[in-house]
Each structure stands twice: as C-alpha cells, then as structure tokens.
Amino acid sequence: MLGKIALANVVSDVFAVGATEIDEIKLIVSAPTEFSDKESEVVVPMVMKGFLEAAKECKAPVKVGSIAENPWCIIGGVATAVCHRSELVMPYNAEPGDALVLTKPLGTQLATNAFIWMKENSENWTRLQERFSVADIEETYRIALESMTRLNRSGAELMRKYNAHAATDVTGFGVYGHAENLAKYQKAEVDFHVDTLPIIKNVREIAEILGRSAKLLSGKAVETSGGLLICLPSSQAAPFCEEYHNATGRMAWVIGTVEPGKRGVKMNPNVKFLSVDES
Fold first, then answer.
1. Percent of residues, the chain, with pLDDT higher than 90
2. In what order do the strands lie in the sheet with 62-70?
3. What angle do CA 248, 199, 122 make, to 5 degrees?
4. For the PurM-like C-terminal domain, which residue ranges apply (predicted)?
5. Contacts of 178 (CB under 8 A, 6+ apart)
6. 217 or 58, which is more confident?
7. What average pLDDT does the segment 214-233 reach?
C-alpha cells in the first residue's frame, strides 16, 4: 500500500493543473539504515511493487531513479507530462462567485496513526479503546487507505470539462494551507471562504479524545495524497460532483466559495463538519 500511496502522491501535482496523460514517472526509494539486509530485501521490493502496480493506471513508463540507504524510509518520485498550455488549468484565475470543491475527505494522518497505535497497543490506543472497537479503527483505516491510493485523474479530467478556474492538490499543508497558497497567487483580489470540512468517519472523535482537534477542525492537519481543491463556476459545481461520483463511486463536496477579498482564506466560525463513510 505504501508504494501505491506514493505513486498517487507523485502524480497528483500533474493532475492538479489538469494534465491527464503522464509521459514518464521516475521512482526514488530508500531503505532506512536501521533495516537489516533481510528487511531491506523484503520491504523495498514490496514498496516498489505497489508503486509499479499503481503506475499501470497512468499508462506511463516508470524509470527507477535511485535505490539507496537513508536514515528514513523514502518512497517518491517525479512525474512528467508534455502538453499544450491550452490543455492546462492554470492555478490563478479564480473569480468571485466560484465554488470551492474538494474531491477527497480529510483526516488521513490521524486515521493511519490510530491504526498504528492500535497495532502497537500504545497509550493512545488505551485511551481510544474506551470509545472505539478494533473494527471501528480498521474501518476508518480502510477509508483512509482507499482515499490515499485513489488517483486524482478523474478530478483532473472533470475540472477541465466543467471550466475550472484554478486548482491545487491537498497534501502536507492541509486544506487550509494549500487554499492559502492558491489564494495568494490569484490574479483577481479574492478570498476563499471555507464553510464545510468533510472528515473521515471517526477521525473527529479520535482527535477530540486525544486533544488533537485544533489542527483538524481548522483544516490545518497534515494530509497524505489528498484530493483536489478546485475553483469552478458555481453553476458547474453540482454537475461536477455528480459526475465525479458516477466516475469514481466516491463523493466530492462543495466546501466554500470565492469572494472579493485580499487573497486569503476565511474559515467560517460555524464550519460544518461532515462524517465521510466510504468504506
């Protein structure tokens, strides 16, 4: 799964500008120096296998760039697409009145951490099991895995069809951070107003129990291989979400609007939280 998640994350930057045909993918992987030779011989090929299997969906050749030892486990790479500028959704044309659409739920970090804590029987799991069963955490983990391994290709195809004005993918800076970066570079003086946050089932409660709600509920929690955050005409938002659901079997959500402003992000103090159950 780690390899599949890495592939989805690598190609996401290409999909975020509306390019859908990837010409080449370069794989970079390293094993932690603390691994024994036997562990490296088992883990590295498994990670590479997942990456290569997921790359088949992109129909692009994969080149192995480097395999090395490192203090940390690294799996990633570079994706390249050659296309005409007219085929791209440039990330700076948001307009007042646009809708903000998000194509994957939030909460991947806490969902995966909760699963690890459960497996390790850690102190955090001791606190969580007063509220959650093993089956609850496994279900939350499955939702997160499906989300992280799903390519953003369908979103890229549809945002071109529905005349998107700007987009970015949501990863390490959280939905707030990536929205802030996107707003900063708009040609028009606009703000992104966020009023809804879709969060993976059980994650909001996990955060509350462990005292980790602040970042999650403000949209600042770290995400891995998150969805596309798209600005598109408000009249196109519902058709986009409907066709996205038909294409992927998964939901996309209108999470806010683009309004006149100063190129920033405004979080509604009464933001609506949605519990996402797509297991």
1. 79
2. 62-70, 24-32, 74-80
3. 115
4. 95-264
5. 168, 169, 170, 171, 229
6. 217
7. 97
